[in-house]
Specification:
The protein is about 50% helix and about 15% strand. By secondary structure, the protein is an alpha/beta fold. Strands 9-8-7-11-6-10 form a six-stranded mixed beta sheet, sandwiched between helices. It has a five-stranded parallel beta sheet with strand order 2-3-1-4-5, sandwiched between helices. Helix 7 links the parallel strand 2 and strand 3. The protein is elongated, with a radius of gyration of 30 Å.
């Protein structure tokens, strides 16, 4: 089976080979899952499609011609800076008890690796001879050279190379701990790849250097406006820090650490580690769900910003996740009439919130809101005059009461709108406090609701918001809004 994400990591020859293999499978009638093949002869806008392709080709040709006139390949200050950094580092005298610090240079692109090798040939023939290059296939002879020159655990040790210049083909599964520095000549969109690169020299199996170094090359300020590789990768790295509660400074010293140690956990050797890292556990869990319940992964795209659920458990407790810039986890343990609220982390409670697809949810009730309010009171936020949680709860109570009424025809016609309001309050939270208050104020006692007044007010709200207003809200992005996930474990009698 051929995946686009896989072939992007290959060089041109390997991509062509994979495509040929794929074509042979199709000829045999072996179609991968979710496969769809498009034939250009059947396109309704065949001519326009071909014209667009030819226009793109012409655009690329123009760009290449312009690059040639600017002589950017010949005059490459970034490659020159890399050469200066590498020669300065390998010329340093080794620290006491340590060998010469070798260097691993990574780039996403095979063309970039080949270009850098050519620049090394131009700048310094001696350095070029001491540089081992990896771009495409890895024959046994090349694997042996890598292991003998860069793996401190290898039985046979050689010293023919000081620098390993490679694509991400070597970012996983290799011990390169005779190198004490990783240079990221470019930053992948996926920051986990950067962590994998660093893991090649940070091996638990054999310590070689007291200190390891990372050097990152980023675009110029002008180039960053277009590429945004550092910004995107760094944002994703912050997401990893904040979500997993881990600690590592990969891109610069301003990354905010949190207490647990991403550096050790994500880069440890899985064969020699005493236990599975939390990150590995999360990744394995994700792949298990993706394999056995792919529809669950697809639904993640539409997950609302607010989720509230109750499920069966062995204890009475609640966990609330607050995500706005950073992730905070609160835990409420209920023992008889006493509720104790403490700080927690995803790592500590993962097993308690994990459930199976067949796990049934329990209808949210007064006890849920009692625990929820207790946790929110302990959240580190300034007090506000009127609790939005109370308004949400009271408005939901009014809506549930009206949905249970069966004999009023006018109210029956409004029930689709009532269900939309209920879904919004529980899952999305788009209603302003003013609207929640209008619903909640229909009565302070659900059994005393004036149905006629409620119908009039709901008709007004439906006219103002629109029956399908929530569909529009679901399509919007809320990057600055707080995400709240509340999970109550309830011990059933």
């Amino acid at each position: 089976m051929l995946f686009r994400s896989n072939i992007l990591e290959l060089d041109n020859d390997e991509i062509e080979l994979r495509l040929m293999e794929y074509e042979e499978l199709i000829k045999k009638g072996e179609y991968p899952k979710k496969h769809k093949r498009y034939k250009i002869e059947k396109f309704k806008q065949k001519k326009e499609f071909i014209d667009d392709i030819q226009s793109d080709i012409k655009l690329f040709e123009n760009i290449l011609n312009e690059l040639e006139t600017l002589h950017l390949v010949e005059n490459d200050p970034k490659a020159l800076k890399l050469y200066e950094c590498v020669t300065a580092e390998i010329s340093k005298k080794p620290s006491k008890g340590e060998p010469l610090r070798k260097i691993v240079i990574f780039s996403e692109y095979a063309d970039t690796v080949r270009h850098l090798k050519e620049k090394f040939d131009e700048f310094d023939n001696k350095l070029s001879e001491r540089t081992l290059v990896v771009t495409g296939a890895l024959p046994q002879s090349r694997l042996r050279e890598i292991i003998e020159n860069f793996d401190a655990s290898a039985t046979k040790q050689k010293n023919n190379y000081d620098v390993l210049l490679s694509t991400d083909k070597l970012s996983e599964g290799f011990n390169l701990n005779r190198a004490g520095m990783v240079i990221n000549y470019d930053i992948p969109w996926n920051p986990v790849r950067v962590i994998q690169r660093l893991g090649r020299i940070n091996r638990i199996s054999k310590k070689v250097f007291d200190k390891l170094y990372i050097m990152n090359f980023f675009p110029t300020e002008k180039g960053a406006e277009y590429v945004r590789s550092k910004e995107i990768a760094q944002n994703k790295m912050f997401m990893i820090h904040n979500t997993l509660g881990e600690d590592s400074k990969i891109f610069d010293i301003d990354e905010e650490p949190s207490p647990a140690g991403l550096y050790q956990k994500l880069t440890q050797n899985p064969e020699t580690g005493d236990e599975e890292s939390f990150y590995t556990k999360i990744v394995n869990l994700y792949h298990e769900i993706k394999l056995n319940n792919p529809e669950t992964i697809e639904k993640l795209q539409d997950v609302p910003r607010r989720i509230k659920v109750i499920k069966k458990s062995e204890e009475n407790e609640m966990f609330v996740f607050f995500k706005k810039n950073r992730l905070f986890v609160k835990q409420a343990l209920q023992e008889e009439d006493k509720i104790n609220v403490t700080d927690s982390s995803l790592e500590m409670i993962l097993d308690k919130i994990t459930c199976r697809p067949e796990t049934e949810s329990i209808r949210i009730d007064e006890n849920f809101w009692r625990l929820y309010e207790k946790i929110k009171q302990n959240d580190e936020k300034p007090p506000i005059p009127t609790s939005p949680i109370s308004m949400e709860k009271n408005a939901l109570g009014v809506i549930d009461f009206l949905l249970r009424q069966k004999e009023n025809h006018d109210l029956t016609l409004l029930k689709p709108f009532l269900r939309t309001l209920r879904e919004d309050i529980l899952d999305y939270g788009t209603l302003p406090d003013y609207t929640l208050r209008r619903i909640a104020n229909l009565s302070n006692n659900h059994s005393m609701i004036n149905t006629g007044e409620a119908i009039a007010e709901l008709r007004t709200l439906e006219k103002e918001l629109g029956l399908n207003y929530l569909d529009r809200e679901k399509k919007k992005q809320y990057p600055d809004k707080e995400i709240i996930i509340a999970i109550e474990n309830r011990k059933m009698q």
